[in-house]
Amino acid sequence: AELRAELGSVADITKHPFAALNTAFLHDGFVLRVPAGVVIEQPVQTLFLHTPVGQAVAVHPRVLVVAGENSQVTFIERYGIDCIGALAGAPCFTNAVTEYVLAAGARVRALRIQHEGTNTYHVGLTAARQARDSRFDSISLSLGGSIDRNEIHVTLEEQGAECNLNGLYVLGQSEHVDNHTVIRHEVPHCKSTQLFKGVLGGKSNGAFTGRVVVAPDAQKTVAEQANHSLLLSDHAVAETRPQLEIYADDVQCSHGATIGRLDEEALYYLRSRGIGPRTARNLLVHAFASEIPAAAEEPQLIDGLETLIASRLEGRARVLEDDA
After folding, report:
1. Residue of 83, 144, 162, 196 with fewest CB within 10 Å of its CB?
2. pLDDT tens-digit profile of 228-241?
3. Pairing of strands 30-34, 135-142
4. Alpha helix (H) ranges present in the chain?
5. For residue 183, which of 222, 214, 143 has the smallest C-alpha distance?
6. Model pTM?
């Protein structure tokens, strides 16, 4: 009965059609419940791994994380493809829903890594509800896919709650990623930050829509959001739509966005030191992207994320080339 009450309490199926579709096909899932006062030292990881078959498939993963009062946990969701069958070629549709319930004083670090391949269509909803003095830190990596839609919805329901959303998307060929975030400040004295970065090559398209809603009574709100895109091709497209809806009058809210190319002077400096063109570009791209994995704070997590990003950037040269 308790699980039934919690499941679907954060992801509203009346507002999110794909969450409704996920619920309609729900027959199993993953539940992580952290009791009050418990600190889980090591990260908890789930891996959703597709083994391609000879026909198109659709899967609907469901995750629920409940963090009790003053508990702490790092939770990692990874969506990948079995490389043994990766040449099967049949498309796959993933429709994932993850819900977080944070009690008073809880701290949750959430990492979401999507690298399912170029023949996949991925829709993911992350929904979080936060109580007093809780903290939700999110890092999402989108490392390729035909279409990837990443939605994050957070509601700060009690005073002192804080959320920090960070994201990085690295695209090539004709890949497309949409990042949609909504943070709702319902009460006073809460804080939120957002930082999303995109590295776009080929004919890829990366979009960010960040929305912050500050309720009329949510005085003393602090909300910041930023989106920065790095274009590595003449044919890549970056779209950014920061949005602030402020109905209170004593707040500190800001947003910013940049879209640009690699710094030619920095490239020239590296080339003048005997560094080859590909290596020089890689160094600058790594420097641009490194701020996102650094948000994980723990050295082991940072190293793991940087390794994934480096593999994507260096192992797939098409991301760094104009493959029009």
Report:
1. 83
2. 999 999 999 999 99
3. unpaired
4. 2-6, 17-24, 264-272, 277-289, 291-294, 299-315
5. 214
6. 0.92
